[in-house]
Write a structure and sequence with these properties.
The protein is α+β, with helices and mostly antiparallel strands and 188 residues long. The chain is built from six helices and four strands. Strands 1-2-3-4 form a four-stranded mixed sheet, with helices on both faces. Helix 1 packs antiparallel against helix 2 and helix 3 runs parallel beside helix 5. The protein is elongated and about 75 Å long.
Length: 188
């Protein structure tokens, strides 16, 4: 399984949730059918097991529904993002989600550079840019320095934001690592 922050994580998570959901569903159906075939009744422990298996089924169904709208960068855009990261000698985090009681937001690519967090948002999400910034500002909680948070719509804007920044000093690189770790804790 891929780890969060790597390119392809959202796709891997979708597949895993779908597979687990289908396996749970098949187990439930097989359990109930076998109870009916062998005992001609639904009043067996097999049906109790099927009811218990409905909990992981529901958990994986909800997890799948949450990630179904998450569209990662295309291969072409991923290559462009890697070129931008190589120019700046930084690493981008991919497939980042941020959850809240209000909902969830997905960022296909996020750059942490010199105490700045620059998130790329999907154009078809139902959130305004202001809301996307508010979600991403959760990265400021629990880190020693409060990073500046910016949200952009395209890789061109991401590159433009990075070009405005000076290279980080030695001590800032460690702070950026802490910010990136906090970023990976925020969502599913």
């Amino acid at each position: 399984m891929m780890s969060k922050g790597n390119y392809g994580y959202a796709k891997s998570l979708k597949r895993r949730r779908l597979l687990l959901m289908l396996l749970c569903f098949l187990f439930i159906v097989a359990d109930v059918v076998s109870s009916l075939v062998f005992f001609q009744t639904k009043k067996t422990l097999f049906v109790v097991l099927a009811c218990i298996m409905s909990i992981p089924f529901a958990k994986n169904l909800i997890g799948y529904l949450m990630v179904i709208r998450c569209e990662p960068l295309s291969e072409e855009d991923h290559e462009k993002a890697e070129e931008i990261a190589g120019e700046r000698e930084t690493v981008f985090a991919y497939d980042i989600s941020v959850t809240d009681t209000e909902g969830a937001l997905f960022y296909p690519c996020v750059a942490v550079y010199n105490n700045n967090v620059i998130g790329l948002v999907q154009k078809d999400q139902n959130f305004k840019k202001k809301d996307a910034v508010t979600f991403l500002k959760k990265v400021q909680e629990g880190v020693p320095t409060k990073p500046r948070v910016v949200v952009v719509d395209s890789l061109k804007e991401l590159k433009r934001e990075l070009d405005r920044l000076n290279p980080p000093k030695e001590d800032q690189v460690d702070a950026d690592v802490k910010i990136a770790e906090r970023l990976l804790e925020l969502g599913f």
